[in-house]
Design goal:
Layout lengths: L1 H12 L9 E6 L3 E6 L3 E6 L5 E6 L2 E6 L3 E7 L4 E7 L2 E6 L6 E6 L1 E7 L6 E9 L2 E7 L3 E12 L5 E5 L3 E5 L4 E6 L14 E5 L3 E5 L2 E5 L6 E5 L3 E12 L5 E3 L3 E12 L4 E2 L5 E3 L3 E6 L5 E5 L3 E3 L3 E6 L5 E5 L3 E3 L3 E6 L4 E5 L2 E5 L2 E5 L3 E12 L5 E5 L3 E12 L4 E4 L5 E4 L2 E5 L3 E3 L3 E6 L5 E5 L3 E3 L7 E6 L4 E4 L6 E3 L4 E3 L2 E4 L3 E5 L5 E3 L2 E4 L3 E6 L4 E3 L1 E13 L4 E3 L12 E13 L5 E3 L2 E4 L3 E5 L9 E3 L3 E3 L3 E6 L16 E10 L5 E5 L4 E5 L5 E7 L8 E6 L2 E2 L2 E3 L2 E3 L3 E2 L2 E7 L4 E5 L1
Parallel strand pairs: 2-8, 7-11, 10-12, 11-13, 12-14, 13-15, 13-16, 14-17, 15-18, 16-19, 17-20, 18-21, 19-21, 20-22, 21-23, 22-24, 23-25, 23-26, 24-27, 25-28, 26-29, 27-30, 28-31, 29-32, 30-35, 31-36, 32-36, 35-37, 36-38, 37-41, 38-42, 38-43, 41-44, 42-45, 43-46, 44-49, 45-50, 46-51, 49-52, 50-53, ...
Antiparallel strand pairs: 1-2, 1-6, 3-4, 4-5, 7-8, 9-10, 33-34, 39-40, 47-48, 64-68, 65-68, 66-67, 66-69, 69-74, 70-73, 71-72
């Protein structure tokens, strides 16, 4: 003790140069170094027997046993309190010890109580312990610097911030920091929260270029948790495990940069009642357990940028989910969802809960994001909204392979839940961008809207590719009364309006089906394969370029009642170009009426009866436009109604003409009226054009050749020659029948 006393006394008597330093540091034997601002020190002295060193600061006296002091040094002022964990102990350098920053240490368990008015104090943590923690109480915002830190707390959180003010967590460059909590937490004092391996009562802001690894082992605890919001502006954060949520932010989460990896047993990132906003950075999430989500919140979920990869393996899990809107303005989003739908008991049966890539209880708005979704589970959903899906621009690619499943609903009725790439409980609006969907599962659909579908507008034209290849699924019944779930490309419960777009459909069942109306104002529509191409009670073509191939009816206006009576449905063609080709159904089938006032209709009819090129139950008035139809003549072959304003021809042959044999009509003056090349064998031609005039003479030729341009079998420009003359006739009524 005498040696220490002499050393300290000598130090204090040295020239004033030491006192010119800003802070006096008292190095204690317990590894806690206390700093006192020299400007605030009134005096230093020893007690009567020299056993204690006394320090008076602004009227307050502090006593330190000499045998507990290693040394006293002087240095510059600092706002950084340092903690170096050394297995079962901690070294502390506290330059603010006499300014309201109190540090208690027991082994490697640290409690900081900061009552100072100073803001933005730095608490720098480094070192390693397998049995320790860092806990802080403060009323002011501060910085927490992690610089090569590893803390395991078998009894609770590794870091516990009991502060109501913002904490900025700085991950020091090129450092790796690891936090691990215990499986079972001890009870905290005063019923304090301790909800995760890294827990904070207030806002957490992450910065820096270091790495933070969190091993969440606490039963029913999160990995990283704030009872306020979390902001990620840098760093590489890895939630290696968590029994509940990987990241849990009670009042929202915003990420602008950095890298975040999450593997948890609960939700990946849950922003609870606040907004979840991703502006940049990279996120990777794996959701393993049933009924949990990758990114989720109760408020608006916004993605403006960044790279997001989510794997959702759990049944009925959601990769991205919001109880309000999901707004996707940018970024690259890749989702693989493999979970199955789960049947929940309701009433006399069940209600399915789906595994969904992107789910919103409100709208889903896509305005610039690049989205790639793969869904493989039974009944899996790609993008699903309880309200509307609105796509303004961006790129969406959805591949679905999950099969449909038959179940009994809450009323006891047999139904099927099926995989669908896009599903909206209200409207789907596709204004721009590129949408590609492919569904191969049994009864899997491309797009389903419970209300209406709008595609394009006068200023914006989306590109849409929809493919379904799955088999149909028997739901109930048998034979002609069987009820099937089918792999339709587009299914809408109200209206479809297409104002613009480049649309390609390849469907195992219907191409576009609406329960009320389909209106095509302008677009390029190619239905490359379908069972029925376009089906609705009311179908209107006002423009566009439409090509439809089907194995049944290409265009079917119907209420679906069946039978021969006029059901009141209506097909209207005012303008546009329409080509249909059916291998086993009608080119146009109207269970009600048809009205054509303009446009061009080219139909390659079926190769055998009873199907025909044109079939209607009511009347078919052709008042304008151009129509040519090839088919197999029978008693069911129909031409436009005599009530039409424009003249038509009903032509049939007594011998079959082979496929690709030219059919040519010319006026008595030699002027070409039509040259058509049917793609199948045919015995009839239905033709209507403004070129036909009452009392005029026309001639029919077959075979030969044409030098013009052929599109869909219809020639334009050029010259016809070399054909066989079959018949010369005169138009005598609105419908003239010609045979040869």
């Amino acid at each position: 003790m005498k040696r220490a006393l002499v050393a300290i006394a000598g130090l204090l008597l040295i020239a004033p140069s030491l006192w010119a330093q800003e802070v006096m540091y008292l190095h204690q034997a317990n590894k806690i170094t206390l700093g006192a601002q020299v400007s605030r020190v009134d005096s230093t002295y020893f007690n009567g027997d020299g056993s204690a060193f006394l320090l008076r600061i602004e009227g307050n006296e502090y006593s330190f046993p000499i045998n507990g002091l290693d040394s006293i040094t002087f240095g510059p002022a600092s706002d950084t309190v340092k903690f170096i964990y050394e297995n079962e102990s901690v070294s502390v350098v506290n330059p603010l010890a006499f300014e309201g920053v109190n540090v208690e240490v027991e082994g490697a368990f640290v409690i900081v109580n900061a009552t100072t008015d100073t803001k933005d104090i730095n608490f720098k943590l480094s070192g390693n312990t397998e049995n320790g923690t860092f806990k802080i109480y403060t009323s002011k915002r501060f910085n927490l610097i992690l610089s090569g830190l590893s803390i395991t707390n078998p009894q609770g959180p590794a870091i516990n911030v009991q502060s109501k003010k913002k904490t900025t967590v700085i991950l020091a460059d090129e450092t790796i920091n690891t936090l691990t909590d215990g499986t079972n937490y001890t009870n905290p004092p005063n019923d304090e929260d301790q909800k995760g391996a890294f827990f904070s009562e207030a806002t957490l802001v992450f910065k820096g270029n270091g790495t933070l690894i969190i091993n969440g082992k606490g039963a029913d605890k999160h990995g990283l948790c704030s009872d306020d919001d979390i902001q990620i502006n840098g760093g590489h954060i890895v939630i290696a495990s968590a029994k509940k949520d990987g990241v849990h932010a009670k009042d929202g989460l915003v990420m602008t940069s950095g890298n975040l990896e999450v593997n948890s047993s609960g939700d990946g990132i849950d922003a609870k009642s606040g907004t979840l906003e991703i502006n940049g950075g990279a996120i990777s999430i794996v959701v393993q357990e049933p009924d949990f989500d990758g990114l989720c919140c109760d408020s608006t979920l916004i993605i403006n940028g960044g790279s997001i990869t989510i794997t959702a393996n759990g049944d009925e899990s959601k990769a991205i989910k919001s109880k309000q809107e999901v707004i996707l303005n940018g970024g690259d989003i890749a989702i693989h969802a493999s979970g199955n739908a789960v049947l929940k008991p309701v009433g006399s049966g069940y209600k399915p809960s789906y595994c969904t890539a992107i789910k919103s209880n409100g709208d889903v708005v896509i305005n610039g994001a690049n989205i790639a979704i793969t869904s493989t589970g039974k009944g899996g959903k790609g993008i699903s909204a309880d309200a509307n899906i609105i796509m303004i621009t961006g790129e969406v690619n959805i591949t679905s392979s999950g099969n449909g499943v038959v179940y009994t609903d809450s009323t006891g009725i047999k139904r099927a839940y099926v995989s669908t790439c896009l599903t909206a409980d209200n409207d789907i609006t596709l204004l721009g961008g590129t949408l590609t969907t492919s569904s191969s599962g049994v009864a899997g659909k491309g797009m389903k809207a419970d209300n209406s579908l709008t595609i394009g507008n006068s200023k914006s034209s989306p590109t849409i590719h929809i493919t379904t290849t799955g088999a149909r699924l028997l739901v109930s019944g048998w034979g002609n009364s069987a009820n099937y779930a089918e792999a339709k490309a587009i299914k809408v419960d109200a209206d479809v309006v297409i104002d613009n777009g480049d649309i390609t459909i390849n469907s195992a069942d219907d191409g576009i089906k609406a329960l009320n109306s389909i209106t095509i104002n302008n677009c390029t529509l190619n239905i490359l394969n379908s069972y029925e191409g376009v089906e609705a009670p009311f179908i209107t073509f006002n423009g566009g370029n439409t090509h439809i191939k089907s194995s049944d009816d290409c265009i079917n206006s119907t209420f679906g009642y069946g039978g021969e009576p006029n059901d009141g449905s209506l097909l209207t063609i005012n303008d546009g170009y329409i080509m249909t080709s059916s291998t086993g159904g009608d080119g146009i089938d109207c269970n009600g009426n048809m009205l054509m006032t303009g446009g061009t209709v080219v139909i390659h009819g079926p190769p055998q009866w009873p199907e025909v090129g044109l079939d209607y139950n009511g009347v078919c008035n052709v008042n304008g436009g151009f129509m040519v139809i090839s088919g197999y003549y029978s008693m069911l072959t129909q031409a436009p109604s005599p009530s039409s304003e424009q003249y038509s021809l009903k032509i049939f042959t007594y011998s079959t003409l082979s496929a690709n044999t030219l059919f040519h009509i010319q006026h008595s003056s030699g002027e070409e009226v039509v040259t058509f090349q049917p793609s199948r064998t045919y015995t009839s031609i239905i033709f209507s054009s403004s070129a036909l005039q009452s009392g005029e003479s026309y001639s029919i030729y077959t075979g030969g050749s044409h030098t013009g341009t052929m599109v869909d079998g219809l020639y334009s420009e050029g010259t016809y020659s070399g054909g066989t003359h079959r018949k010369t006739f005169t138009v005598t009524g609105k419908v003239t029948t010609v045979s040869f």
